[in-house]
Design goal:
single chain; 2 helices; elongated; mainly alpha
Length: 86
């Protein structure tokens, strides 16, 4: 599941980037220079991603990440580090 998390979220970000590319769905500002249009679309991308990424994550992975194991068998997580079980 760990690798598919990156696959699905990467696909989501790629589609979002494509849709928000200047001229695909909209172009802001209409008469601006290339640099200004790119800057505005970068801000729009960041705002849209910031608003929807958690919702998309919950839609893709409603069960959460509880079944992902952070440590290999025989080890336990202690303060974020893998320690051998006693």
């Amino acid at each position: 599941m760990y690798k598919t998390m990156y696959l699905y979220m990467s696909l989501f970000v790629a589609v979002l980037f494509f849709v928000l590319t200047p001229g695909v769905v909209l172009r802001l500002p209409p008469g601006g220079s290339k640099l200004m249009v790119a800057a505005v679309h970068a801000v729009v991308f960041a705002v849209v991603y910031g608003l929807v990424h958690k919702t998309v994550m919950h839609m893709l992975y409603p069960e959460g990440f509880a079944d992902m194991k952070a440590c290999p068998p025989g080890y336990k997580s202690v303060n974020g580090k893998c320690k051998p079980m006693e």
